[in-house]
Amino acid sequence: MDNDAGSSSLSRRQLLRMIGITAGNAAMYQAMSSLGFAAESPYRGPIDLQGTPPGASVLILGAGMAGMSAAYELRNAGYQVQVLEFNGRPGGRNWSLRGGDSYTELGGFTQRCQFDQDLYINPGPWRIPYHHRGMLHYCKTLGVPLEAFVQVNYNAYLHSSQGFGGKPQRYREVKADYQGHVAELLAKATRQNALDASVSKEDREKLLESLRNWGALDRNFAYVASGSSADRRGYKKKPGGGLTGRPIPSEPVALSELLDSRLWSDIAAGDSYDWQSALMQPVGGMGRVGEAFGRELGPLIRYNARVVDIRQDIHGVTASYEDTGKPGSRVTARADWCLCTIPLPILAQIPMNVGPAMAAAIAAVPYASAVKVGLQFKRRFWEEDEHIYGGITYTDLPIANIGYPSSGYHSPGKGVLLGAYIWGVHAMEFTSMTPDERVQKAVDYGNQIHPQYRAEFDNGVAVAWHRAPFAMGCYGMWSSDTRARHYDDLCQIDQRILLAGEHASFIGGWQEGAVTSALDAVQRLHQRVLAQGSKA
Amino acid sequence: MKPQFDRPMMRRVAVLLLGAGVCAGAAALACADDASFASVATLSNASGEDIYSRICQGCHMPHGEGAVGAGHYPKLAGSITLASWQYVALTVLAGRNGMPAFSAAADQVWDGPTVHLSDAQVADVVNYVRSHFGNSYKDRVTASQVAMLPHPAIAAAP
Q: Second label for A159, Cα 20 to 30 Å away, from A177, A316, A338, A409?
């Protein structure tokens, strides 16, 4: 990309550098985003912190992915590290709910997860794309085994309550038909010379050939029931062996019905960079990563510690906290430096003497509403009856998604699926319900897609992130405006305090954002420590 | 790259213009068949009570009692803070800390759609909390009074 020095035009990188110099990083990022290559994780491999002064200490607030990856690196670099964590477990939003677990949300509603052994849901993150190299590095380092997470399943459904009479359609059919019809139209326009202004004579034939290939068109460039369209959308009668095996192609759906249904809006989901295959999940639940970090850091983490005050002076930082097992108690922890990963809605309420710029940034970021519901059924009917192995069904019902487990295929006995994964106003409405109501709603809506729900439903759990006592929301929502005004101030070191977490990243809501934010922070902190030398 | 918590399907999140009575696209029918989702999503005049019980109580709780965890959601029940209707209305309009700005157009809160309340709805919900949960402030707020308060962003129709 930088090799076009001989060209008279600026390379993209040169252009971006100029934008960065003249208009600042936020503007550069905007330009990078629009050019489409800022989204990659900035992870560049394990970091190497050398020359830590003896006795240098860092107090870390929060034992989520950011806090624990920072603690791991700083400890390895020779710092004295102490981590304070509100929950009685490591991980933060990295978390799996398993049978026997108990969870009390804000408002006092307690749920006891009644899933069978080895069954779980991940209330928070549930997948790791192949390019989230920071997360993958720590999974590897900590010995957390991974398995495939099925994102795109051609046999899962797209569902619209108004299209196709409310009957769910297989992703395979919708994708094939949409692609086939579009290819046919484009081929028609090409052959009628409607595209001559844009397509050269030499490219015309190549384009037509590619459209036939891409859309599974017949020799006349028509998308019709045929061997080639059946090869994409499936068969009315599947090919098989012997005398009964002669296939019959299926009939494509008309374009107008497809367009009316709006099911096309989810066709490209798996094409998004974040969701492109391969994706992975830890064997046994996403929470295995947090648990492994917790084991690794052992006594460095102080659990059940609710931070109530953070105070810095010229020599160091003191955090006061309540041992939640002893309400009203006050304990203090002190270190030379403080890396704070507490979610912003909580941090905004904790007295902390940082400058006005960081304080304004902390208060400027509203948190997203999100809800997940895990449902246990008496059998894995989605596999047995509908041949759906992993993947996601998308629906315009308020439950938005049904996620099928990517492991344990054909297990006898019960199965757990993600019965709802909800954002926006519907998440707020689900949040406003009791956990039991949320589960009931998820069953009622899901029953419109899988009529087996009513008979097979066993039990469920529902997590609404605004009711999570340790997070008070799902993740930080930055607009381009707040990003431009506050992001750098949020990330700068304020004397002896600096912040990390998904909220201090451009990979918001993803664990990779937390990890890369933490690595960026500890490297800057280390430079500051070295620069201060013995004064640290 | 859109900031996303494990990347939701933004195309599936309804843009809800509560004041305009628009329940965008496919979601309109989805919520129309369920009374529990109809009130906020489809009524042009969703009442203050509807808005409170469908949206606000997620955090402030069914009886305005608030909640305490690592941080807290302020209690609205019997709260003297509510004596100033302007304070309450400004909080709904502009948000506070993790609470989103409910007056802002979708793209001004975030790159994805969220909830937008009209000035009339802000007035309704302010009146509701100031006359319930043990609060009995007599003065009623109107949409035009709310309109005169600073809005954090001009809500352009998306």
A: A409
The CA distance from A317 to A303, in Å, is 19
Question: CA of B107: which chain A residue's CA is closest?
Answer: A479
Q: Is B36 on the interface with A (CB under 8 A)?
A: yes
Domain harbouring A69, CATH code: 3.50.50.60
Q: Which of residues 80-139 of B touch A (CB under 8 A)?
A: 95-101, 107-115
- Please report the pLDDT score of residue A352 as a whole number: 98
Residue type, A47: I
**ipTM score here?**
0.86
Domains of chain B listed by start with CATH number: 45-148 (1.10.760.10)
**Confidence class for position B45, pLDDT limits 50, 70, 90:** low
Predicted TM-score (pTM) of this structure: 0.88
CB A377 within 8 A of CB A431: no
Q: At what angle do helices A511-532 and A65-76 cross, to 10 degrees?
A: 40
Which of the pair, B117 or A455, is modelled with greater confidence? A455
pLDDT at B4 over 50: no
CB contacts of B99 in chain A (<8 Å) are: 345, 366
Contact criterion met (CB < 8 Å) for A106 and B67: yes
> Shortest Cα distance from B57 to chain A (angstroms)?
5
Q: Which domain holds residue A213?
A: 173-244
CA distance B41 to chain A (A): 8
pLDDT above 50: residue A36: no
Number of domains chain A contains = 4
Q: What is the mean pLDDT of residues B52-60?
A: 95
DSSP string, A263-299: GGGGTTGGGSGGGPSPEEEETT-THHHHHHHHHHHGG
